[in-house]
Amino acid sequence: MNTVVTSREDILQHSRQLIQRQGWGAVSIRTVAQACGVSVGSIYNYFGSKAELVGAVVESVWQEIFQLPQGTEGFADTAACVSWLYGRMEYGSRAYPGFFTLHALRFTGDEKQDGRRRMQRAWQQLLDALCAVLRQDPRVRPGAFDSRFTPERFADVLFSLMLSAMLRQDFDYAPALEIIRRTLY
Fold this sequence. Notes:
By secondary structure, the protein is mainly alpha-helical. It folds into 2 domains: 8-48, Orthogonal Bundle (Arc Repressor Mutant, subunit A), CATH 1.10.10.60; 60-184. It contains 9 helices and no strands. Helix 4 runs parallel beside helix 7 (110-136) and helix 7 (110-136) crosses helix 8 (151-168). The radius of gyration is 19 Å and the shape is elongated. The N and C termini lie far apart (60 Å).
């Protein structure tokens, strides 16, 4: 076996490819090492355990699915951002079948906390980007937001709709766009 040391990102990329081809059950230190063409020890240089590897893979899948275009200024308005997010959810569902519903089951005990933390970090990045778009959206009518109804609260509502859609595997963003239209524009 080739013992050439690979990079952390190469390991994560090969792990994502394994998941796409064979499902979550394919991810183990040994199978990832084989996919990378390196020794098992090389994987342990980057990840201390299978749980650590799986946690990092989960986070990297979230990052791949929702890799934002160059800055949020790439979105013309909130509706364009939400449409893009639903499209990425659909991509994620196709590329990583069962990911949105099953990845949390991959963790046990203390591993669940780490997995949840990684997932919440990915979610927070999406919420932050959505808030930034809401604040810059030229279509938002004056007075749409106030001290009680903030961009953060509206982003939470939109994000809750998205999470529900993810779990239902329903990628029709028209209802979310209607809420945006009626509430902000």
